[in-house]
Amino acid sequence: MFEKITKKIDPTILVFILSGLGYAITYLYQLGVYHFYQIPSFLMDIDLTKIIRNVLFVSIIFVVGYVIDAFYKESDLKNYLVKNIVEKIKIIEMPKSLSNILQFICVVCSLYFLSKYLSSDLKNPTYLILWIVSQLGYFITKRYGQAALVLFIIFIFAYVYYLGYSQASTKDTYLMIKGTNQIVVEVNKDEAILMKIDKHKKIIYPEYQILKLESSKVNQLKLETVKTGRLTVKD
User: Fold this and answer.
1) Residue 126 in contact with residue 162, Cβ under 8 Å?
2) What is the CA 86 to chain-centroid distance, rounded?
3) 174 and 195 in contact (C-beta within 8 Å)?
4) Which of 36, 129, 152, 212 is the most exposed place for a label (fewest CB within 10 A)?
């Protein structure tokens, strides 16, 4: 299957697709980070190094798939993907009463997590991930194989976004400008984003300052690594 795809797709287009996936992964991850700190997304600067790293990651996955494909005929691999995944979801057999109970639980959880996500001012992506998982469970119990597969792909991209948010929310060590309460939360090519914190209350104030790294003032600043513990952004 992979071999057939690569023969049909021009190498230039294939590179474009891999680059697009790498950019999408980088963007979603960074979007999650900026979401946690409540920094506007238009300040995001997607670094080329990060894109290249994610392109390499996607390329490795593609190469692994190509190698696996080399050991199977196209029909064998296709049958494995379709019959052993999609079709198995369709033929899941369980007592009707149990199926109804599981579907009810999935629907209740889905509505709960969706309401929590929509009602949250900060739109916590944890609830989004749990909503997708609940929906995925519902589709599986209903034996909607193709819908479950599509939702799983959506889950992968949503999870990348969640990882960025989670990484920022669990970070406990920052660079701090010595003699101030300002920490560096993000560094782009030629600028750093600073935010004020309260070390005792473990909060970050939702105010930011952009420091140009090319400025002569940077040489006058002294930075120190500070263990702050996990911080939360003040509502």
Assistant:
1) yes
2) 25
3) no
4) 212
